[in-house]
């Protein structure tokens, strides 16, 4: 809590200029002789210069202005101005500037310079819905992601994840005030609309962590709470300038996928979204939802006919079918069920992208309202035995998650750029299965993920079923700097090449 309070008064400048101190450097660095000041280099350019509030020091480990008792020991003397940082070069900085309370004013452009737009342009027959996760800002070094890293033409819709539901008032609550408000991420993400005026930006409410307890059940079950929520939601969306709301309750009747008790959540959720839709439509706002791809959750959580009537579109989370929680290794977003896996696990016939899409359609969802979610990340598991031909780990027993990635730092989870880096080490071998898709293994670990070829197949499925488009979770896990693939946003560009006719993005070669 202390960290969030003290950083509010940071003076900030984005300068984006070449500087001798930043030659061939990437990352954050403490100023010479002064741990109250720090700067950021991106690809050799000086892009950020900040001064911490009085009495605080920059913590190079957590990348925030911190209380002096938490700062690295080599910095503690800087409170008295007696210690010296290892950096020995002097540097002139641009004049510091404190933005006004109501606007964000970058000195120059975004951290990742925007690329030239393709000459053929972008068709809008299909949606490309991109989730932006505010916590990606806290990743270290080149994995740190900010709104200015987004090319606003590569998505038709951006969804900001997440706001949360206050468990007492049952109204929308800002999740991370420092990122969302003090660091102006709301304003900065919405500023992208001034570049691409056709872009729609929605706010996502909920998420996995926010769906743990009964607060959403209490919200939809009480008429007064529902009315209060809707009025507040309209004010919140209007105040911050969003184009709509994305409901990410995971899941009605099945909190965090645990369908253990009988509830009225599905019925009450249907009533709730009908009333919310009336209010949103009246004010020209969009209403979408992130929904499950799992059969028993779909059956228990959703009145599909009501959802079809009241949501502008749904984002089908067609991933995480398998992972460290499973008994055997399988890619976490397979197109189809592999026959040998179905022989070993009869429930696996319900665990594929193709099944989920067709099941939602069978339940009554209009295909054009289904936006198929694709993962820009991999799931990694540790195998119980060394991989062998012909499957190289696919279908073999596992005993839990594999090690975490260097940047995402979550066991069993790696961003696409982390998977790409592993392949480049040549320790891992890449394989492809016609049912399961793409995976890599090193004899002991198995990592399933979507590469360019797998994405092309999924985009073709979208066209085959005449779906509404593709959703990506999440934009910050693509190789957005091009550090691994030598091309920025290889996955997102592939989505655009197939769905939006950007032929110059076709045929990308990467891991």
Automatic annotation (TrEMBL):
An annotated GO cellular component: extracellular region
Alphabetical keyword list: Chitin-binding, Disulfide bond, Glycosidase, Hydrolase, Signal
Record has Hydrolase as a keyword: yes
Entry-linked SUPFAM superfamilies: (Trans)glycosidases (SSF51445), Chitinase insertion domain (SSF54556), Invertebrate chitin-binding proteins (SSF57625)
GH18 domain residues: 126-502
An annotated Gene Ontology molecular function: chitin binding
Coiled-coil residues: none
Gene Ontology biological-process annotations: carbohydrate metabolic process; chitin catabolic process
Domain of life of the native organism: Eukaryota
Domain Chitin-binding type-2: 19-77
Signal peptide (UniProt feature, chain positions): 1-17
PANTHER family: CHITINASE, CHITINASE 12-RELATED
Protein family (similarity comment): Belongs to the glycosyl hydrolase 18 family. Chitinase class II subfamily.
Name under which the protein is recorded: Chitinase-like protein
Organism field: Leptotrombidium deliense
């Amino acid at each position: 809590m202390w960290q969030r309070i003290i950083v509010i008064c940071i003076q900030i400048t984005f300068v984006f200029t070449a500087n001798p101190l930043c030659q061939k450097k990437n990352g954050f660095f403490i100023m010479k002789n002064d741990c109250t000041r720090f700067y950021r280099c991106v690809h050799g350019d000086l892009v950020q210069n900040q001064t911490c509030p009085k009495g605080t020091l920059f913590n190079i480990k957590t990348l925030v202005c911190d209380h002096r008792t938490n700062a690295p020991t080599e910095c503690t003397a800087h409170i008295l101005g007696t210690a010296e940082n290892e950096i020995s070069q002097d540097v002139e900085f641009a004049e510091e500037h404190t933005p006004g309370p109501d606007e964000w004013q970058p000195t120059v452009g975004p951290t990742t310079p925007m690329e030239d737009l393709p000459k053929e342009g972008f068709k809008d027959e299909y949606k490309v819905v991109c989730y932006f996760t505010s916590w990606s800002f806290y990743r270290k070094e080149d994995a740190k992601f900010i709104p200015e890293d987004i090319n606003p033409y590569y998505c038709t819709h951006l969804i900001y994840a997440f706001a949360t539901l206050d468990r007492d008032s049952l109204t929308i609550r800002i999740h991370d005030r420092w990122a969302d408000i003090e660091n102006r991420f709301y304003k900065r993400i919405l500023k992208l609309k001034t570049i691409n005026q056709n872009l729609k930006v929605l706010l996502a409410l909920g998420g996995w962590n926010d769906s743990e307890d009964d607060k959403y059940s209490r919200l939809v079950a009480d008429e007064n709470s529902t009315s209060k929520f809707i009025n507040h939601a309209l004010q919140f969306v209007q105040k911050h300038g969003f184009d709509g709301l994305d409901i990410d309750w995971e899941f009605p009747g099945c909190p965090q996928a645990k369908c253990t008790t009988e509830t009225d959540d599905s019925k009450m959720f249907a009533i709730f979204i009908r009333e919310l839709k009336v209010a949103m439509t009246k004010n020209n706002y969009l209403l979408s939802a992130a929904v499950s791809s799992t059969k028993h959750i779909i059956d228990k959580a959703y009145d599909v006919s009501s959802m079809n009537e009241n949501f502008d579109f749904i984002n089908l989370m067609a991933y995480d079918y398998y992972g460290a929680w499973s008994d055997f290794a399988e890619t976490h977003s397979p197109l189809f069920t592999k026959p040998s896996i179905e022989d070993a696990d009869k429930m696996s016939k319900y665990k594929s992208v193709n099944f989920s899409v067709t099941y939602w359609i069978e339940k009554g969802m209009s295909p054009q309202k289904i936006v198929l979610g694709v993962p820009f990340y991999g799931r990694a598991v540790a195998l119980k035995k060394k991989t062998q031909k012909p499957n190289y780990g696919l279908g073999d027993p596992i005993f839990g998650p594999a090690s975490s990635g260097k940047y995402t730092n979550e066991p069993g989870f790696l961003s696409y750029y982390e998977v790409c880096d592993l392949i480049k080490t040549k320790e891992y071998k890449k394989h492809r299965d016609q049912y399961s898709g793409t995976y890599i293994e090193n004899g002991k670990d198995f990592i399933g993920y979507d590469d360019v070829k797998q994405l092309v197949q999924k985009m073709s499925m979208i066209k085959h079923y005449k779906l509404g488009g593709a959703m990506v979770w999440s934009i910050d896990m693509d190789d957005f700097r091009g550090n691994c693939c030598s091309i920025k946003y290889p996955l997102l560009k592939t989505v655009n090449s197939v769905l939006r006719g950007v032929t110059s993005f076709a045929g990308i070669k990467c891991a």
